[in-house]
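Morning!

This is the sequence you dropped in the shared folder:
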Amino acid sequence: MTAVILSFRPQNIPNVYSEALSEKMEKELTLLSPVKSKEELLARRDEMQNVDLIFSTWGMPALTEEEIGTFFPRVKAVFYAAGTVQAFARPFLARGIPVFSAWAANAVPVAEVVASEILLANKGFFRREVLSRKDWQSDALADVYPGNYGTKIGIIGAGMIGKLVISHLKRHDVEILVFDPFLPDEKAAELGVAKTDLPTLFASCHVISNHLANNAQTRGMIDRSCFELMSETAVFINTGRGAQVVECDLIEAMKNHPGRLALLDVTDPNEPPAEGSELYTLPNIRITPHIAGSIGYEVRRLADTMWDEYHLWVSGQPTRYEVTARMLETMA
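The structure's back. Tokens below.
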């Protein structure tokens, strides 16, 4: 079969598709040189007529159904070595072309970061690290933070990332509360978590971590009414999407309660935050530049996962990461 790597962010291609994987692909497929821009796609239109498989990553263009038919009339499947496919998948699905995503592989490093931050937050690491620069022998916060025994932790959204975070945390003696209207009771019991509503979760938990999918129903869901319920030393972590959080309410909650902490890897409406935003200056808000997802060598896991998925698909075995139109209604 003939395949092409399609991404309009050409710098991503050699990072995600390692030299070792590219060699494997070339041995098993007729692998065309990557298409790296709209201009190149137009110039190579005749060549694209023979493409059976599209491999991609960040930078996958959003093609219309008509454009798919024009440029890729023979395409049988799309393998996306990255996370969300919301921006491009629907026209392919409408034409009956299956789309596979490495969203589960991209969830692995996010869950690792979140679990680490939760455990450190329960120890007061983020505030104590700053105070220790002044006088490490004096620990004014010795009796403030609960540690990681019997502590309640709140997980908002038990999708792939949320479940992986829970799996990491279950190695510790902590109590996990989950808010997720789509989580069946039997699955919650299997995970060993307690389902609850959003107010109870914010009022009860020392650390709250957001993993909601980004859709119209979840935007702005985490607002003043939630933040007002947090304890004075509670920690809010957001590695999901910034749009679920009403940013001005979060800022106000942190300003009024300096003992609280917010660890933000995503922001909204701007990422990075607009110049002059108080997110930069408040001492109890820490921002990282969207690093929880796959970075460095971790991005190779995404393409390797899609290569494995391709082998399952082409051999007629059950695949693991096909995205359906129904899934797009609730997934990130």
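Headline: The mean pLDDT is 94.

More detail when I'm at my desk.
O.
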